[in-house]
Amino acid sequence: MSKVELRLNGLIDALKNKIDELCKSKELEKAFLDDELDVNDNEQKFTQFKIICKYDSKLMILEEILKSLEYVRTGEYKRGDKEI
After folding, report:
1. Residue 83, pLDDT above cutoff 60
2. What is the spatial distance between Cα 47 and Cα 30, in angstroms, rounded to a whole number?
3. What residues have CB less than 8 Å from 67, skipping those under 6 apart?
4. Strand, coil or helix: what is 79?
5. Phi-psi region for residue 74, left (φ > 0), alpha (ψ -120 to 50) or beta?
6. What is the pLDDT of residue 80?
7. pLDDT attached to residue 43
8. Residue 2: pLDDT above 60?
9. What stretch of H or E contains 70?
10. What are the distances in angstroms from CA 22 to CA 19, 47, 75?
11. DSSP structural state of residue 75
12. Which residues contact 51 (CB under 8 A, 6 or more apart)?
């Protein structure tokens, strides 16, 4: 493998780890709020919505970068599990 391929694989692995980390953080923060907030349903739903939006935007950006890097590595673009 060339240095470029090794670096690309390292970047892809790092992005996958960061995506996993964000997903875990999102779930932990949501669980914490579910346990700790003694507020009415509307306020709790709003707070959970803000958390989901905060993490989902970061996840979406990282997933798009990951797709681009995997395209550079393989030359194949995938949408979901389908190859395009």
Report:
1. no
2. 9
3. 77, 78
4. strand
5. alpha
6. 57
7. 67
8. yes
9. helix 41-74
10. 5, 18, 27
11. S
12. 26, 29, 30, 33
- H-helix or E-strand containing 78? strand 78-79
| DSSP string across 2-46 | -HHHHHHHHHHHHHHHHHHHHHHHHHHHHHHHHHH--S-HHHHHH
The two tokens of residue 49 are 């919505």
Residue 19 near residue 63 (C-beta atoms within 8 A): yes
Across the range 17-35, mean pLDDT stands at 82
* pLDDT at residue 22 is higher than 60: yes
Which residues are CB-contacts of 72 (< 8 A; sequence separation ≥ 6)?
8
Q: Length of the chain, please?
A: 84
Model's pTM, two decimal places? 0.64
